Amino acid sequence: MRFGVGLFGLQNTAMLPAHWAGAYRDMREYAALMEELGYDELWLSEHHFFYDGYCPALLPAAASVLSVTERLRVGTGMMLLPMQDPERLAAVSQDIHNRSGGRLDVGIGLGYRDIEFDGHGISRKQRLPRMLKGIEVLEAAEAAGGPPIWMGAQLIDPVKRAGQRGHPILFSAALPFERCKTLTKVWEEGWVGAGRPLASKPALGALRNIWLTEDPKEREAARDWVRASYVQYAGLGWTLPAVGEHEQADFAEETDKAIADTVETTITGSAEECIRQLREFEAIGIEHIAFRLMLDGAPRPALESQIRRLAAEVLPKLRDRVTA
Amino acid sequence: MRIGLVLAEGHEAELARLAEIHGLFGVVAGTGNPLTAINAAIYASTATEFVRVVTRVRLGLEHPVTIAEEVSILDNVNNGRTVVLADTGELNLEAGLDEIAVLREALSSRPIQHEGPVWRVPAGLPANATAPKSISVTPKPAQLEVPFWLTGAAAHEIGNLSGLPVLAREPAHLKNPKLVEPGLAAISGELKSDRELVTAWAAAGVTHLFVELPAGADLGPIMTLVSRHLAPEVLMPHFPRVMSESKVPLPWPGDGNK
Question: What is the total count of domains within chain A?
């Protein structure tokens, strides 16, 4: 398995004030620590026009990390493709990929906030055609040696389309394990349906809320930081519509329930318990795990401690399993 | 006058670090491919602590709000050391003025509501029903106000109307010099002619001159020429050359030679 940390949004929130320049410096320092501890990936996240400065331009942020590291990969999880000119984005991504020795992963998503489209002069109605055109441009770039494409999706049809096109998915941390399992099958159907052998499929990925601790008070705090980190999505107006068997999680209309459900996805407990649950993901073909540790309210000493503990007590056990 | 360095494409981190070691005030990044100029500036930024990172931003290639967002990230990565060198590219006067206005408003600490001849921000498109009448581009830059300098075909006209500094390519004497008057010139690596060159620029009223190194130059000697001879020469009137031409102080021999 491969392990990363995310989602870096580089925010200065009402609950955890920080200087933005300090947040960017801290990210470079976290990246250096992660590299030293043996992590594989760092994942960034994008939003626009929010009070907390949620990172709106992931490629410069990715370049800043890649410029001070040597081995760590950096992924955009996810970059909102319809809001950008895909040709320019492909050129910028390719340049970063080249400068970093091929360590950029370009994760792309659709976006959903009207304000973000309107601020960039784009009609929300155009987001799907722009997304499809953009994917074609990035696919051509990838075929010519550009960065690998990842996709963010959590509904049946987009996940299947990602499988058909051959792009791995990074599943949201808000999705329970059973939902990830269902969507993995859907993705595989898309992959196989496009005429590819299942054995040749790439590893998929998932963000996971996780906190390794045996201390009930720390567990309570960590789960509260997870709660706080999803309050921001309520503020952003995240709406995940009910489709098929997928239960609705509408942050705009059912905030408390949606947040409480999402907190329940958190893996907490001893190293053995964390390993047991992560092996369940490995068993269904999700072999990239991005620990979702950048939580609102979690102070830097706590995050550093957790990054170190997971590296010392969890990563070696799961890596050994792959090697064996 | 102060001297800075033009960074060669693909070597931004190395050259920016050298510029800082040699005490230069700033560097220019992104003079190669305009699409990747901000990448170049990011690499120059994370390799340094102090130098100003003048970043060429070619206008007309992307929505200005997207560019403003990228500039703001850059300015937070380098903790407020960014200077935007806005290259008007293919834009005419009207389009250039409007795009620069959007960029500067977006980078200000106020929400933006812009209606110009080219850009309307927010766009107010019918399909974006819940979008408000104004937006705040965040994060805000680390510095109070990002300096904007101009280059390109429409730069002089825009400079006259906006009052923004225009990057000079020739040391023509300035009639009403502003507090900041940037310039850019190539040096040869030959002391006498380079000294005459920078002296002419200083005499013309330029305040910040970026020097472009000859291709393939040996970086050690030429950076020493810049920092020991050219930069001091133009930092004060009547520079006493004994300061740069006397015997260089001995280096520390190191613990092993005691």
Answer: 1
Indicate the residue of B39, B124, B125 with minimum beta-carbon distance to A63: B39
CB contact under 8 A, B73 and A55: yes
Q: Identify all chain A residues contacting B39, using CB atoms and an 8 Å cutoff.
A: 59-60, 63, 92, 95-96, 99
The CATH number of whichever domain residue A318 belongs to comes to: 3.20.20.30
Task: Give the closest residue to A16 by CA, choosing from A304, A294, A305.
Answer: A294
- Grouping H, G, I as helix, E, B as strand and the rest as coil, residue A11 is coil
> CA of B126, closest CA in chain A: separation in Å?
8
Among the four given CATH numbers 3.40.50.720, 3.20.20.30, 3.40.50.2300, 3.30.70.330, the one describing domain B2-257: 3.20.20.30
Tell me the nearest-neighbour CA distance from A236 into chain B, angstroms: 12
In chain A, which among 222-241 make CB contacts under 8 A with chain B? 237
CA of B247 to nearest chain A CA: how many angstroms apart? 38
CB B35 within 8 A of CB B59: no
Q: Can you tell me the ipTM of this complex?
A: 0.93
Look at residue A82 and tell me if it is in a domain. yes
- pLDDT tens digit sequence for B32-91: 999 999 999 999 999 999 999 999 999 999 999 999 999 999 999 999 999 999 999 999
Contact yes or no for A56 and B138 at CB 8 A = yes
For residue A133, give its domain range. Answer: 2-218+266-323
Determine, yes or no, domain membership for A229.
Answer: no
Supply B118's token pair. Answer: 């080219």
Give the pLDDT confidence score for residue B257 in this predicted structure: 63
Say how far apart CA A91 and CA A140 lie, in whole Å: 11
Q: Are A10 and B139 in contact (CB under 8 A)?
A: yes
What are the tokens at A7?
Answer: 């989602």
Among A11, A54, A64, A76, most B C-beta atoms within 10 A, so best to mutate, is: A64
Residue A244 forms part of a structural domain: no
Indicate yes or no: pTM above 0.90. Answer: yes
